Structure formats: structure tokens, C-alpha cells
Amino acid sequence: MEAEQLIKILAGFADLSNGFVDVLKQELRTEKYKPHQILHAAGQMENRVFFIISGFARNYYFDHHGNEHTVRFWETGDIFFSYEGYNGVPSYYYTEILEDSAVITLSYSNLHAIDSKFPEVSILIKNLLLRYQQEEYKRQNLISLSSEERYQLLRTSKPGLFKKVPIRMIASYLNLTRETLTRLMGKRS
């Protein structure tokens, strides 16, 4: 069962009591999405945490000129935990499904309710927030590199991305123009 996969990942962050695992299994929901579905739009409240069983998604925003900027890709096995959603703050980002996807969700309201009953929940949340901060650090580090270094690092760390995602989204993620990314990809051939 997909819930077992999530529980195994969570057990890597904290010791999980049997009571917590039982309650968690009762509260989890499985959802399916088609490509181009928007899970959250900017200004909306993100109301649940997602574990991607299969599929692919991204976060992006529009700048004041109307240009789209991809800031994160979410792949199979990723936990999409939003600091803003958990704290009831409207999101700055859009979350879009990019291919047929199946996810397990847990509402933030249910997460808050079980947080008061099981001490491991606060440890899990701290670890998820730490993971989020590490991803943000990696992203900022990536942007500080030269365009060729950004491209090479992404090509090495996520080679499958180039088969799944349109060039415009990858260019946006790398903070490059589409033309620059195309030129860098051509050099590799």
C-alpha cells in the first residue's frame, strides 16, 4: 500500500509510535490528478501536505512583468510540505501537476490535531522544514553559479527532467533564457 511507503520515509525522520501510525493511516487520502491541473494558485491557502506516489509537479510564480518563474520540481517520492500552508498563510506560488499523478494527502488541520496528541509530529515537522530550507539553499546556490555550471549541475542531478519538462520551464528554473539553454544543450551533443 502507498501509505506504507510514506510511513517508511517518515520513520527515517523520527521514531513513530504505533498509535501515531494508526491515526495517520486513517487520515491519509489518495488523490489522482491529470497534467496541467493546478493544486494551488498564488493567493490561495494551501490546505494539505502531499506525498507524490507517482508523477511530477512544479511550483512557479509570475513576476510583476507577467513572466513565469519555476522554483521547484516535485518528483515521485517527494513530500510537498508548505511552511505557508501549515501556518495558514496564503501561498505565493502556483503548484501544477505536469503528468498523470497519484498523491497521498493529509490536511494541515488534521496534522495540527494529531500534533497535539503525538510528540513525534513536531519532530517530523521540524525535519520537513529543515529539508525545505536545504532545498532553498541548494536553489540559491544553483542560481549563484554560471549559466553553464547551472545547466551541468541540473543535467547531472536530474537527467530525467530534460525528457519530462518543456525547455521553457527548465530555462525558467535555471534563470536562463530559452535560447541560452538551447545553446548549452547543443554544446553537449
Spell out the blueprint of helices and strands:
Blueprint: H1 2-11, H2 18-27, E1 29-33, E2 38-40, E3 48-62, E4 68-75, E5 79-80, H3 83-86, E6 94-107, H4 108-115, H5 120-144, H6 147-157, H7 161-164, H8 167-173, H9 178-188
Antiparallel strand pairs: 1-6, 2-6, 3-4, 3-5, 3-6
Helix pairs in contact: 8-9
Descriptive report:
The protein has 189 residues and is α+β, with helices and mostly antiparallel strands. It has a domain of 116 residues: Jelly Rolls, CATH 2.60.120. Helices cover 48% and strands 25% of the residues. It has 9 helices and 6 strands. Strands 1, 2, 3, 4, 5 and 6 form a 6-stranded antiparallel beta sheet that branches. A hairpin with a 5-residue loop joins strand 3 and strand 4. Helix 8 crosses helix 9. The longest helix has 25 residues. The model has no long low-confidence stretch (mean pLDDT 92).
List keywords for this structure.
189 residues, alpha+beta, Jelly Rolls, six-stranded antiparallel sheet, 9 helices, 25% strand
Derived structural class: alpha+beta
In DSSP terms (H or I, runs of 4 or more residues), the helix count works out at 9
- On the 0 to 100 scale, the average pLDDT is 92
Count the strands?
A: 6
Please tell me how large the radius of gyration is: 18 Å
Oligomer: single chain
Proportion in β-strands? 15-25%
- Span of the ends, CA to CA: 42 Å
CATH architecture classification name of one domain = Sandwich
Helix share, percent:
40-55%
> Major sheet: size, sense and barrel closure?
6 strands, antiparallel
